[in-house]
Design brief:
The protein has an 8-stranded mixed sheet, with helices on both faces. Strand 2, helix 2 and strand 3 form a beta-alpha-beta unit. It is an alpha/beta fold. The protein has 2 domains: about 160 residues, 3-Layer(aba) Sandwich (Rossmann fold), CATH 3.40.50; about 100 residues, Orthogonal Bundle (N-(1-d-carboxylethyl)-l-norvaline Dehydrogenase, domain 2). The structure holds ligand FVH. The site of ligand FVH has 22 residues, from helix 1 and helix 4.
Length: about 300
């Protein structure tokens, strides 16, 4: 549809993220209809001029494009399965967090029902939606991504990963996993500092720039991962094992848990035990990638 007549869009799911998405789409000029399982969550949107559908079926039938932003795979199945007939011939853009396999199953189900399907993954919190800092990943229908790119860009940066509907979810969960492990590491460091009664603010102010500086080495890590050649240029796994052992010992001395550090030690120890102590730290990738085979 032309910019003079923006495509009507319906949004199913009005949690914190669904509300932010509906609001951004409406601000972008699209007639926007919303629905939520529990009443009352649309009040602020209705006050801004969005239409509240009385049922999910009515919401679907109001628009050719349906954005789904629910809690998880089970809630998507619960909601969409009874709507199959109404959804046929429409486009579903599902930005609910799912596993790659769940996303592929959802896409296969949609294809069986005659529903066009674009899987989305949101690298943002609700407050970031509509700002350039928000990044959304998509895979699935190429035609849907190309046709509706201006709509998608109302939410943030839009990047397409091809026709495999699971690919956006794969990158989403890989990025989230990296983030959670990083935050767990900072929490460990903060606990060490707090063990001496110190406020963590000064530590955190140092941790951010420190981690940021270290990330300049990530492209080299990707070369190790992709080539399988882990010949160390600087610090070896043996060196890093000694460092991690010292951190663990210090943690015990300070009376704080070693869970986060122990996880890294385990990854290193498997590689060292397999005779790879002279290789780069990046070799812990092999412990993760082949959990039953640490060779
Ligand atoms: N919020 C965030 O920061 C993150 C950022 C990254 C991506 N996530 C994903 O976005 C999905 C929705 O997240 P949300 O923040 O909107 O989540 P909630 O506020 O908890 O709202 C959940 C909505 O799902 C509805 N719902 C739950 N179960 C069912 C069901 N069985 N049938 C129908 N609807 C269901 C719930 O409805 P209600 O409880 O109000 O009736 C909310 O609308 C999510 O995948 C994040 O991982 C957000």
């Amino acid at each position: 549809m032309s910019e003079q007549h923006p495509t009507p869009v319906s949004v199913l799911g009005l949690g914190a993220m669904g509300r932010a998405i509906a609001d951004a789409i409406h601000r972008g000029g699209h007639p926007t209809t919303v629905w939520n399982r529990t009443a009352g969550r649309a009040d602020s949107l209705v006050a801004k001029g969005l239409a509240l559908a009385p049922t999910a079926t009515a919401a679907v039938e109001a628009s050719p494009v349906i954005v789904v932003c629910l809690l998880d795979d089970a809630s998507v199945r619960d909601t969409l399965t009874p709507l199959a007939d109404s959804l046929a011939g429409r486009l579903v853009i599902n930005v609910t967090t799912m596993t790659p396999q769940q996303a592929r199953e959802a896409a296969a189900w949609a294809a069986e029902q005659g529903i066009e399907y674009l899987a989305g993954a949101i690298m943002a919190i609700p407050q970031m939606i509509g700002l350039p800092v928000a990044s959304l990943l998509y895979s699935g229908s190429t035609a849907a991504f190309d046709t509706h790119r201006p709509l998608l860009e109302l939410l943030g940066g839009a990047r397409f990963f091809g026709s495999d509907a699971g690919r956006a979810a794969l990158y989403d969960l890989a990025l989230l996993g990296s983030m959670y492990a990083m935050f767990a590491g900072v929490a460990h460091g903060a606990a060490m500092v707090a063990s001496e009664g110190l406020p963590t603010a000064e530590f955190v102010a140092m941790a951010g720039p420190w981690i940021s500086a270290m990330t300049t080495g990530l492209p080299r890590h990707a070369e190790y991962f992709d080539s399988g050649d882990y010949a160390a240029e600087v610090q070896s796994l043996d060196f890093n094992k000694a460092a991690l052992d010292t951190i663990a010992e210090a943690s015990r001395e300070q009376g704080v848990g070693t869970d986060v550090i122990a996880a890294v030690q385990t990854l290193i120890d498997r590689q060292v035990a397999a005779g790879h102590g002279k290789d780069s730290f990046a070799r812990i990738f092999e412990s993760i990638r082949h959990p039953a085979d640490a060779s």
